[in-house]
Write a structure and sequence with these properties.
The complex is a heterotetramer, with 2 copies of chain A (84 residues) and 2 copies of chain B (153 residues). Chain A is of the alpha+beta class. Chain A is 27% helix and 25% strand. Chain A contains 3 helices and 5 strands, in the order E-H-E-H-H-E-E-E. With 153 residues, chain B is an alpha+beta fold. Chain B has a single domain, classed as Aldehyde Oxidoreductase, domain 3 (Alpha-Beta Complex), CATH 3.90.1170. In chain B, helix 2 packs antiparallel against helix 3 and helix 3 crosses helix 4. The two termini of chain B are 23 Å apart. The mean pLDDT of chain B is 96. Chains B and C meet through helix 1, strand 2 and helix 3 of B and helix 1, strand 2 and helix 3 of C. Strand 2 of chain B pairs antiparallel with strand 2 of chain C. Chains A, D: InterPro entries: Beta-grasp_dom_sf, Mopterin_synth/thiamin_S_b, ThiS/MoaD-like. Chains A, D: Pfam families: ThiS.
């Protein structure tokens, strides 16, 4: 089980702010995860359509899409940040 | 030097933060503050709604502060970022950098802001005067470009 | 935009100066302040005695402010320089620059300070703890060099 | 008659903060003025010895040493500034 959290328009499009899912063994990188999520339904495909702009944090740390998920317990997906 | 990092919905008091950072430290020669303020976007805007990632927001700002502290000889550093509903004229973010010399204080404050803009997990949504959702503010490529100047040195 | 320029012996209130510069202006998105503070020079210093050229001091700071205003899109600019006896921990100088965007505010404040350091007619004398005259502070060549970066752009 | 004003160690070495003097017709530039003042006594020579570091303002404006004094009514001599 891994906890997924969503923010801003990723959250709005998926329609929930967090969920827990079981990852198949074939999902080892963030890219794998994004592909996997897109198969979960229209709302995911809509949210993650332009997956290159989606930012991902593994256990509160920014991570590249080719990074291994490893033992991360919380994975966050969100758009480019607009703080400050 | 332990930076002061806070993520909060309430406003901050710039004078109090400067005081907390400098009181009793006779080596402080220069204090630079940056305050980000909500604009009204030519009268269209009723408020910004700032969403953030609790937990990561504090951690990411701390990581940026640690880099700043390692790069410039700072005597004090504070970063406060608000979340929730913020109206035009209200404060959004504060950075205070104190150092013996002015250049370090200016550069550290500017560095903090550049990285907080594009790396701290906050997202702004515009709320228009008629109450309608103005949508999420797009990230600006110029903000991403601003990070480059810190790696070219 | 009319800059606020003051040369005075009394201290200033940073929060009040920010407020005066930004209140009622919905275009302000970024406010940068610089405060120069008297250091104790490793415990040697009882005070600085700041001499200035009355009349020219205000005029020269105004000329620097006019250049800054012409170079960056500022919504407000204030510069206050103190004179007389200033003890460690006390404020010496304040610059506040307000703009729509952060880079303009940072650069204008930094520009103001670089030019005030080397062009505004003020001179610092050190007074040591035992009451003796520590002599006039030498101008630093790095301060003069700091001006160059503004002409190379 | 022109008013001369002195600051910081220039003032201390000359021993006064201001004075009014009549400039000979031969004094037309700031360089001429500095040379002329050095002939007024030991304290002036001491103050203005390294004349290249002396800064000069004509009627409150920084001026180069080769500048013409023109109709300036107040001329200030001082060391490099150390404000801020």
């Amino acid at each position: 089980m891994v906890k997924l959290v969503y923010f801003a328009w990723v959250r709005e499009r998926i329609g929930k702010s967090e969920e827990e899912i079981v990852l198949p063994d074939s999902v080892t990188t963030i890219d794998d995860l994004l592909d996997h999520l897109k198969q979960r339904g229209e709302e995911y495909r809509n949210a993650l359509e332009h997956s290159d702009v989606i930012r991902v944090a593994l256990d509160h740390r920014h991570s590249q899409h080719d990074a291994a998920i490893g033992g991360a317990s919380e994975i966050a997906l969100f758009p480019p940040m607009t703080g400050g | 030097m332990k930076p002061t990092i806070r993520v909060q919905s309430e406003d901050f008091d710039i004078a109090a933060e400067i005081q907390a950072l400098t009181a009793g430290n006779p080596d402080v020669g220069a204090v630079v503050t940056f305050t980000g303020v909500c604009r009204d976007e030519a009268g269209r805007l009723a408020a910004l709604e700032l969403e953030h990632y609790p937990g990561m927001a504090e951690q990411e700002i701390s990581r940026i502060a640690t880099r700043a502290d390692g790069r410039w000889p700072l005597t004090g550093l504070a970063a406060i970022h608000r979340f929730g509903r913020i109206r035009p004229g209200e404060n959004i973010v504060l950075v205070v950098a104190a150092s013996k010399h002015r250049q370090a204080a200016f550069e550290a404050a500017s560095f903090m802001m550049d990285f907080m803009k594009s790396r701290a997990p906050f997202w702004k949504k515009e709320i228009f005067l008629d109450g309608t959702d103005g949508g999420w503010v797009d990230a600006r490529s110029t903000d991403e470009d601003a990070l480059d100047r810190w790696s070219q040195k």
